Amino acid sequence: MNDGQYTALKARIRQLTRIDLDFYKDVQMRRRLDNYIRARDQTVEAFVRTLSQSPQEVQRLKDFLTINVTEFFRDPEQFDILRRKVIPDLIKRGSKLSVWSAGCSKGAEAYTLAMILSEATPSVEFSILATDIDDGVLALAREGGPYTPADLRALPKAFALKYFTKTPEGHFVKDEARRGVTFRKHNLLADTYERGFDLILCRNVVIYFTEEAKANITRGFSMALKPDGFLFIGATEALLQAQSLGLDRLSTCFYQKVGDVPRALAA
Predict the structure, then answer these.
(1) What pLDDT score does 33 carry?
(2) What is the C-alpha to C-alpha distance for residues 41 and 135, in angstroms, rounded to an integer?
(3) Architecture of domain 76-266
């Protein structure tokens, strides 16, 4: 598509979905949309008309743009670090933990965390706020399923037996793993961030965002964390400006807020 077509398409997508593609890497996003529209055997103009006439097509495009790739215990070695090192450190601090799973998709990450915390902190209360921009995946997450065998492929067998019910429709999370988990719609690029989190997980969500958008999101996470709180990101991601944003890199996927947010950051 040419520049004019892409500009018009971005404007229509922003109007219909609240997704602002100006925050996404231009070359990659244009290529993805080109392939998406070509696979539908439509011109850009015809595709825009289709979006204007069909809420179902808008939802399909939204699913495509937000990726929604997820599974329980995705990257098990990183969740092992969370379980063995990060959570014990957090437990020492008080009787209640506040966690945010940002870009939670179908809820697998939030429920994974709930299972880990239920096992590790029987005497400690916790709350998990799980957010996403996509109403469709949030509806599934609130229902606790159904999840496919592929969603559960990295799940320890003991957890599958204890926390899931298998039905003809798929696997559903039991109430034991749903306590303390709240799902809410939230746009990382447009909405305000709550404060006071001990731990924030945002994994494999911002890989198509511009560096400016990533920095703004990271700044928001740093301000949302309590002093010495932890940020857990995806294995293929990196925070190039972490230190200037008030975060120390601990390992591949974990960063810790350095005391309070620097004045320059808070401003």
Answers:
(1) 92
(2) 27
(3) 3-Layer(aba) Sandwich (3.40)
Q: What are phi and psi of 242, to 5 degrees?
A: -55, -50
Please tell me the distance from the alpha carbon of residue 48 to that of residue 26, in angstroms, as a whole number. Answer: 19
Single-letter code of the amino acid located at 18: R
115-140 per-position pLDDT tens digit: 999 988 777 789 999 999 888 889 99
User: Nearest-5° angle of CA 71, CA 76, CA 80?
Assistant: 130
CA distances from 249 to 85, 225, 239 (A): 14, 15, 9
DSSP letters spanning 23-60: GB-HHHHHHHHHHHHHHTT--HHHHHHHHHH-HHHHHH
CB 157 within 8 A of CB 149: no
Q: What is the pTM of this model?
A: 0.83
| SS3 at position 62 | helix
The mean pLDDT value for 173-186 works out to 94
Q: Is the pLDDT of residue 18 over 70?
A: yes
Q: Are 101 and 231 in contact (CB under 8 A)?
A: no
Instruction: Count CB-CB contacts under 10 A for residue 8.
Output: 15
The number of residues in the chain equals: 267
The amino acid sitting at 213 is A
- Domain locations in the chain as residue ranges: 3-65, 76-266
Task: Tell me the CA end-to-end span of the chain in Å, nearest whole number.
Answer: 40
Q: How far apart are CA 72 and CA 113, in angstroms?
A: 9
